[in-house]
């Protein structure tokens, strides 16, 4: 049955933006976790990024889900509990939900409550028979108790958008292990992973001509000013994103245009000209590389779907090694 008024459950472990920023600015080199991009304005800017001609991942993954969503849902189980991590606007989610049974349960998880509420309301209107139970949480610290009452149904995680690429390989293994603990024996994982491709295409995707990615990156400084009272001049920082071929990742940085200082409470954080705050990584994986990474966390790759140009992969993984591997184009 549908919930009459889906309201995001609250995560008892609230993110500590202030302490995270302080810790990040004390580091050498300085860094702040990319999850703090996603206030309401940052989430809106990311939606704009996804519409740019340079940013191929969203439209490519959408095409894969549109063509193969029925097959994916059959592997997940039509009556499953579908837990979407980092659901955001959940634009692609209907391509899976439309193939689920009315007794399935959808649990969107996102750190931005306004975005979570709006997307859940939109999806509930599209699929009125589905039970939807939004959870405002940092999926890196997802409380297992939040879905224990669905234990009789198969639990699967849906993790689109190649968000796993924001983790280092070591962090990715730990997150995949946490997902395995969450879904338990018999559970599954449907995950989008961006593939390696020409450097020019990767660099363009994170430096769109409209400037949405730059605004998205710089919005982190605005959040620090508005929410933490940080004293800084955001105009004296510039967006910089490039593909680091050695590490197989896009890196995003905020580059100081001059010698300056960010003041936060009683602390001061000096910057030299050209010094950066490392704000995001986006690792790219071949299908083989990701299969090896997943196996380190106890997952077995069962099926892979990809576009004709090999830009993006959607993988289905299981904790059981009994099912045969299937590759679909």
From TrEMBL:
Single GO molecular function: methyltransferase activity
UniProt protein name: Methyltransferase
List this protein's GO terms for biological process. Answer: methylation
The record's keywords, sorted A to Z, are: Methyltransferase, Transferase
PANTHER family xref list: ERGOTHIONEINE BIOSYNTHESIS PROTEIN 1
> What is the scientific name of the source organism?
Sideroxydans lithotrophicus (strain ES-1)
Top-rank lineage group of the source organism: Bacteria
Domain Histidine-specific methyltransferase SAM-dependent positions: 19-317
Q: Name one Pfam family in it.
A: Methyltransf_33
The family database entries (InterPro entries) matched by this protein are listed as: EgtD, EgtD_Methyltrsf_superfamily, MeTrfase_dom, MeTrfase_EgtD-like, SAM-dependent_MTases_sf
